[in-house]
Amino acid sequence: MHRRGLLKSAAAVALGTVAKSGFAKAQDTTRYTGNILFPPLIQPHIPALAAGIDGFSIDAQGYGSITGVTYTTPAHSDADYHVDLKISSLTSADVTNLNNLIQGMVSASQWQKVRDYEATHASANLSYWGFLSGGGGASYDKTHEAASGFGLSEENQRTIVNAMTEIAKNMSRVAVDVHVRNSANDYAVGGNMIVFTIAGSVRVNNQTRQWRMIANKGVGGSGDETAPVDTNVVRLN
What we know:
5 helices, 10 strands
């Protein structure tokens, strides 16, 4: 899904706890209790064709809209917001570690394909996972085939799946630090906060675990009055 369809394509809803900080002094914190609802399943889960195969699937991907958040970032300014989410997800650091692991296994020309995908899509640091699935759902067999075509050996893929499993085992509730970059605009930004999300499962030794990711970039605002948003997903203390 392309960047220009970002606001119209939001397929998830979120509520959270918000504390404004940064360029303007924080007022009394307004708190919300809620969730991010990831996009619906793209396809029903399809069992691997080979019995007992280890691997991972991509079951849903699309835009998550963080709503229930009352904020306004003035014109020609940036602002920071902290959102506590009642949801389990990988952290941004987890995603970075996985991306670095995979990037170290392939040639620079192969990884450039992920960069090219990122340049035309809104998936940000989740671009490898979107690229691998072609932007849709992918069963264990499909991701295995795509990873092989990408230049990842069987040993490489086992290493990736084992790393995903270890991270998924420790997946817990998260918070999101949001930075709205509105300094280049002559209008205020408020209302929507939209980020790309991906969810799936990983299986090792016939044990399956769920995983979720939230992108590190998004969009704030609505209509023609929008601004880039940087997000950092961290463990909820």
